[in-house]
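Annex B.
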Amino acid sequence: MTVYPLLGYLARVQLLGHIFGDIYPRYSGAACGLAFVFIYPSLIYIISLHQEERLTWPKLIFHVFIIILGLANMIVQFFM
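Putative sodium-coupled neutral amino acid transporter 9: predicted structure tokens.
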């Protein structure tokens, strides 16, 4: 319960702050949230299914769709 928020803060401030901090300071949290909520869990699940040879096309398409939805959500924030 305490480690995840600390890691999220560290990634947002230290890693993504250099990328988005100068241009769009409020979007560094959005990019970090995209990674932690949409990209990392889906990729880890896809990789684990692939290693177990249980990855099917419908599962792959579904999880890639989740990543695309998260990316679209972050991009929409630039226009609001």
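The first helix runs from residue 3 to 20. Residues 3-77 form one domain. Further annotation is deferred to the next reporting cycle.
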